[in-house]
Amino acid sequence: MLAIFKKELKSYFTSMTGYVFIAFFLVIVGIYYAVFNLINRSANFENALSGLSFIFVLLVPILTMRLMAEDKKQKTDQLLFTSPVSIGKIISGKYFAVLTVFLISMLIICFYPLILMQFGSVPLKSAYSAILGFTLLGAAYISIGLFISSLTESQMVSAVVTFVVMLITVLMDSLVNFLPTDNRSCYIVFFIVVLLICWLLYSMMHNITVALTAGVIGEAALTIIYVMKPALYDGLLTKVLGWFSVIARYDNFSSGLLDLTSIVYYISIVFIFLFLTVQAIKKHRWN
């Protein structure tokens, strides 16, 4: 894994990708820092970070689009598949390499609240709580970008799809206001979601028995609940999508709160998408 990590990290700094990401990241954060904290004379650094969630929509696709797509296009992934290193370690090495590039930017940002201290009192606890949450948010987004990169051979397609997914997550809280809240509509949506999950299981495992069993059990459970207690579906779609809102979890950090459940949530997102990436690569390997 260490060899993969070193190779990927080196590739970011032998090309322009790593420098471009760090430069644009620091420029955008610096603009918000100057406006919110220096010009407006605010000591709360978390206020500057709270409006920067869109930065991941712009920069994460640039950082992750080549991770797996380039290997697929150049067929160098075949060398990885035949190496003695497990696929899990290969994916982990690539992920930690791109995460390191992001952490370099965050390490520089850690000095911003200290600069503010030269002009007065600064609430460091809330400032570094926001920085921690911002770091975890970025780590989660990078794992999603890595997974999307593993699904295609085109870096452009990977970048566009990652951009769209990131944009949807940022706008999730606004989009849920336009979703239906009646129990019938929610039941239909969840019915379709179960079908999609079954299709995903089959495409990853190529086991029709497992996919059908999961589908039958899932659809039966949904239908039974809908028949017996339809009121449970009222507004359930909005609640579920709100739970999956990656940005909403960051609000506690931006308020200066160190939320343990949000930390576990972000770490879980990372592990889930790394696992899905491994499964996607295994599927491609056997095909």
TrEMBL record:
Membrane topology: Multi-pass membrane protein
Compartmental location: Cell membrane
GO cellular component: plasma membrane
Ranges that cross the membrane: 12-36, 48-69, 95-115, 127-148, 160-179, 185-202, 209-228, 263-281
A molecular function (GO) term: ABC-type transporter activity
Domain ABC-2 type transporter transmembrane: 36-204
Keyword terms, alphabetized: Cell membrane, Membrane, Transmembrane, Transmembrane helix
Name this protein carries in UniProt: ABC-2 type transport system permease protein
Organism: Anaerocolumna jejuensis DSM 15929
Native organism taxonomy: Bacteria, Bacillati, Bacillota, Clostridia, Lachnospirales
